[in-house]
Amino acid sequence: IFENSNDASIEVAQEMANLIKRKQLSNKRCVLGLATGSSPIRVYEELVRMHQEEGLSFENVVTFNLDEYLPMDKENTQSYHYFMHEHLFNHVNIHPENIHIPDGKTPSTTVVEYCLSYERKIKDHGGLDFQLLGIGRTGHIGFNEPGSHYNSGTRVITLDHITRVDAAPAFLGIDNVPRKAITMGIATVRSAKRIVLLGWGQNKADIIKKTVEGEISSHVPATYLQNHKNCTFVLDTGAGSELT
Ligand code: F6R
């Protein structure tokens, strides 16, 4: 638990940069699972700063984003595709072919095969070295809403009402928020060698308490992180305020 989310974000960005550099030294690619939303913005800002001011290279970085709304155009400013380019990819030297974000325009007739191939691509790259997460008020990680199975892989999910309410301001009204998304599964996330979940602010305190101290259950999918071997929750004092 950090005094503030700024210091916490810098620490997380530092860990990611160290991993990227360590992999570079042994000529290996670094496979990062990335999240969108408000929580990781400062982390990405710091990674961009390190690239611009300290020469941190993304030459060896391969990324897989957790999720994307369905349907969603890449060009739409609400898309996670747009978000990632705006906050990170447009400002660093990552190879465009190393960027993977679920395609929100995948037709329903091929979406099952598409999700399986997303999953396969992660495995073909040797799996996720590091997974960055935020957490929704429903306890979702990625868009694994309550009811998500421990063994779930990348798939189409119906968004929880609370998730759509939380997204409504950005979409100028709940009616404009897509009802579905493509998300990596719980098993996909848990397959990462290292997981860091970010939680900022008082309005995450309740779900953080349930996630960290509650029983492991599909009602709060983030509780599935409890028995991961290498997972850290990085919180500010607000988000950590209800922990005992
Ligand atoms: C986004 C994602 C979501 C968010 C969560 C928290 O890619 O996977 O699980 O991390 O909804 O969102 P913020 O950070 O906006 O509170």
From TrEMBL:
<feature type="domain" description="Glucosamine/galactosamine-6-phosphate isomerase">
    <location>
        <begin position="6"/>
        <end position="230"/>
    </location>
</feature>
<protein>
    <recommendedName>
        <fullName>Glucosamine-6-phosphate deaminase</fullName>
    </recommendedName>
</protein>
